[in-house]
């Protein structure tokens, strides 16, 4: 199976996710155990137990690892488990019948077949060849009956059937993968549009709340006195803050900035995006520090800046006045450092 088809794996197509996947895992492990316990009748108990554990562990690996295709290291262990189990259950047999090699071959073939579903078609067939070869060599070496060679056919038939199924389902996989990608893109576009509409509505509501009374007076042709013109200047600065530093615009900071500007302080708010991923309490600490400096300023300039992401310092507040300069730095951990 091509790597690009693994984007929508057969596990997705078969619904092997979450609860269904765990139910399938329990059932699959039970099947391996039921086949492998038959080996205890003719094989020494310790090798038979080791073979059972090897195939059970291989079945666990091939199902629980969520990455598709299955990682190379896990794939190698699964491939080695099948011929190893055959060696363990067919060496030192007290019964020369067909049961040991056939039971092990069935259990191993199911594990190898799952490799096909995990995007490791080539590795699955390597495991089939190794298992069939081991069984054939041991059958001949142990002098078993001709019927014992059935164990070499079992893995071939099982993996061939699953490989054919995977090949038939590949076009369906591609179609489903394309549909899922289109649905993801459509959902992302809808989320972006919703966010844009939400931000536009928020800005319009803010503009309506702040500027409508003054705009209605201007539209009505009212004469504007000095106080009205000052109000227009403060409104213009406050609206500009919402565009240049939207993450800094809060009721407390906006009120502090308006008061400082009314006292003749030049206020500059800048937001370069450093608040992304920062806890809310750290943001509030930045806003509180900026509001405190603005409330205390009586002249000069106060510049509040949120720095770009990745900087050691999250935000700075620089108050430059005739009495001297004061600089506050807040890092992403919320620590505040003041220098003059």
Structure description:
This protein has 340 residues and is an alpha+beta fold. It folds into 2 domains: 3-186, no CATH class; 245-339. The protein has helices spanning 10-13, 18-36, 45-64, 72-90, 99-117, 121-142, 150-219, 226-244, 251-262, 280-296; strands spanning 266-271, 301-306, 313-321, 324-331, 336-339. A 5-stranded mixed beta sheet has the order 1-2-3-4-5, with helices on one face. A hairpin with a 6-residue loop joins strand 2 (301-306) and strand 3 (313-321). The protein is elongated and about 115 Å long. Mean pLDDT is 81; it is low at 1-8.
Parts with pLDDT < 50 across at least 5 consecutive residues: 1-8
Order of helices and strands: HHHHHHHHHEHEEEE
Envelope shape: elongated
How would a textbook summarize the main sheet?
Answer: 5 strands, mixed
Q: What's the number of extended β-strand segments?
A: 5
Q: How far apart are the termini?
A: 66 Å
Question: What portion of residues belong to β-strands?
Answer: 5-15%
Helix-strand makeup class: alpha+beta
The pLDDT mean sits at 81
Strand order of the largest sheet: 1-2-3-4-5
CA-based gyration radius: 36 Å
Tally of DSSP helical segments? 10
Q: Can I get a quick summary?
A:
With 340 residues, this protein is an alpha+beta fold. The chain has helices at residues 10-13, 18-36, 45-64, 72-90, 99-117, 121-142, 150-219, 226-244, 251-262, 280-296; strands at residues 266-271, 301-306, 313-321, 324-331, 336-339.
């Amino acid at each position: 199976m091509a790597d690009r088809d693994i984007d929508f794996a057969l596990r997705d197509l078969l619904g092997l996710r979450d609860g269904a996947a765990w139910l399938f895992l329990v059932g699959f492990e039970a099947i391996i155990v039921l086949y492998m316990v038959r080996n205890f009748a003719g094989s020494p108990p310790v090798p038979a137990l080791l073979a059972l554990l090897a195939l059970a562990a291989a079945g666990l690996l091939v199902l629980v690892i969520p990455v598709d295709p299955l990682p190379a290291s896990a794939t190698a262990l699964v491939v080695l488990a099948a011929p190893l189990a055959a060696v363990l259950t067919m060496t030192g047999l007290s019964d020369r019948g067909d049961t040991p090699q056939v039971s092990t071959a069935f259990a191993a073939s199911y594990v190898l077949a799952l490799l096909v579903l995990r995007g490791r078609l080539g590795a699955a067939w390597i495991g089939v060849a190794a298992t069939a070869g081991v069984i054939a060599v041991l059958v001949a070496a142990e002098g078993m009956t001709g019927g014992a060679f059935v164990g070499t056919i079992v893995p071939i038939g099982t993996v061939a059937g699953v490989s054919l199924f995977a090949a038939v389902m590949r076009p369906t996989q591609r179609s489903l993968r394309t549909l899922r990608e289109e649905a993801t893109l459509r959902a992302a576009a809808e989320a972006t549009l919703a966010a844009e509409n939400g931000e536009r509505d928020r800005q319009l509501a803010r503009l309506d709340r702040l500027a409508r009374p003054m705009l209605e007076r201007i539209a009505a042709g009212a004469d504007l006195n000095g106080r009205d013109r000052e109000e227009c200047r403060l409104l213009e600065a406050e609206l500009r803050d919402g565009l240049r530093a939207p993450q800094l615009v809060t009721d407390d900071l906006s009120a502090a900035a308006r008061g400082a500007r009314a006292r003749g302080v030049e206020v500059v708010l800048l937001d370069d995006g450093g608040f992304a991923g920062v806890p809310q309490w750290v943001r509030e600490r930045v806003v509180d520090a900026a509001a405190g400096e603005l409330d205390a300023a009586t002249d000069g300039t106060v510049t509040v800046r949120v720095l770009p992401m990745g900087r050691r310092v999250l935000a700075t507040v620089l108050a430059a006045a005739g009495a001297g300069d004061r600089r506050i730095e807040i890092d992403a951990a919320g620590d505040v450092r003041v220098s003059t």
